[in-house]
Amino acid sequence: MTNQINKNIVVGISGGIAAYKSAELVRGLIKAGTNVRVCMTAAAMQFITPLTFQALSGNPVHSDLLDTDAEAGMGHIELARWADMILIAPASADFMARLSIGMANDLLSTLCLASTAPIHLAPAMNRVMWDNPATQHNLHILLQRGIKTHGPASGEQACGEIGAGRMLEPSELVHQSLTALACMDKPQFLQGKHVLLTAGPTREAIDPVRYITNRSSGKMGYSIAIAARDLGATVTIISGPVSLAPPQGVEVIKVESAEEMHTATLRAAKNADIFIATAAVSDFATKEIFTKKIKKSGEHLHLQLKQNADILADVSHQSDDLFTVGFAAETHNLMEYARSKLDRKKLDLIVANPVGEGKGFDQDTNQLEIIWHDGHLSLPEKDKQLLAYELMDIIVERYNSHFG
Ligand code: PMT
């Protein structure tokens, strides 16, 4: 992938076993096209060497406030000004405590004091330390000050305990950092507008324990919801079963089957201005749902399927003053099939993406062809969140030219 987001991130690493994950974080941020400089505390260097980060970031690692040679290269004030974002991962209990009282007793804490860039923390520590009222008090102060946190996640910890305190996975941190960078200074073009989305897969029950579904993770839909929210819209997702956390400030209505998605979407569409159908809705459901678990009998099992209603087509036919956007997931003849869906479903715009062979479904990246009745634009492969911001800009432009 090429350089897609020309932003500067200082990755701060404080002392904790999760510091080893920061190598992958730095790699992911560089791969996404950001410029990264790493600043380590003395404790962090006990866990992982600066050389690793120098090799990964392509820049010397900053660690010493009083090193005149390093200061001559890029002084701490210059570094503080260079940063568009400071991301501290892992953020230890000690570092959070020092940050909360404004200490400047090493380079990283000094940088945080000297910079006007937003500060983001990925806390990582033992679960008892995380739950300790002292840490929670410090967290409260930091949040009140506008510092953003990512995680911690729950699960098995390096110390063998189970609970909250694990650093978020590097890929998740990359995704959340890109989101934060991309929404900086976004004008609120959709203030007062309601954007409705469908996202994720549907599940069509066969019996009490089995169902028909597909590989959609909901990532594309949830990323677009975040982009719409950051443009000032009120956002609702009608979501099939996914393992994604509901985005902050977005209403998520959970459904399972295509029928449930159909009912919830048609109801919500009455109050929407823009509808974006990213869900991979099952085209078929079983004619009959068995009330008891089907037992093995013979070599074959014949299931009868019936066609599900087309949510997108029904929504677009229900209302003329709703701007409707469809998605087309195609393994071949991408443009041709997408254009025919644009006409057949009476849409204002369609977004085609190639799927199959590891593309589209359940991936962090995607590639889009955006088609409307007298225009077309290609967005090459990149992170779904970055694509979502670009797509929403185009939707706003088309929406304004349609209704403006
Ligand atoms: O969720 P991810 O893992 O991030 O993957 C994203 C994605 C590949 C699922 C997404 O980008 C995508 O392409 N979504 C549409 C998938 C799909 O079902 O495409 P389709 O070509 O079969 O359907 C065309 C359009 O009609 C879609 O907007 C779909 O939501 C809608 N539809 C289809 C059938 C139906 N019964 N009701 C519908 O609303």
Q: How would you describe this structure in keywords?
A:
single chain, 404 residues, alpha/beta, Rossmann fold, 2 domains, eight-stranded mixed β-sheet, five-stranded parallel β-sheet, 19 strands, 25% strand, globular, binds ligand PMT
Brief description of this entry?
This protein is an alpha/beta fold.
Basic shape: globular
- Tell me what portion of residues adopts beta-strand conformation: 15-25%
The strand count comes to: 19
Distance between the termini: 36 Å
The CATH architecture name of the largest domain reads: 3-Layer(aba) Sandwich
- Which ligands appear in the coordinates? ligand PMT
Average of pLDDT: 93
Name of the top-level CATH class of the largest domain: Alpha Beta
- Give the helix proportion (percent range): 25-40%
Rg, Cα atoms, Å: 24 Å
What topology emerges from the helices and strands here?
Layout: E1 8-13, H1 21-31, E2 35-40, H2 44-47, H3 50-57, H4 68-73, H5 76-82, E3 85-91, H6 93-100, H7 107-114, E4 119-123, H8 127-131, H9 133-144, E5 148-149, E6 153-156, E7 162-166, H10 170-182, E8 194-199, E9 204-207, E10 210-212, H11 219-230, E11 234-239, E12 251-254, H12 258-269, E13 274-277, E14 284-286, E15 305-307, H13 311-318, E16 323-330, H14 334-344, E17 349-354, E18 365-372, E19 375-383, H15 384-403
Parallel strand pairs: 1-2, 1-3, 3-4, 4-5, 8-11, 8-13, 11-12, 13-16, 16-17
Antiparallel strand pairs: 6-7, 9-10, 14-15, 17-18, 18-19
Helix pairs in contact: 1-3, 1-10, 5-7, 6-9, 11-15, 12-13
Ligand PMT is lined by residues 198, 200, 216-221, 258, 277-281, 283, 308, 310-312, 326-329, 341, 353, 355, 360-362.
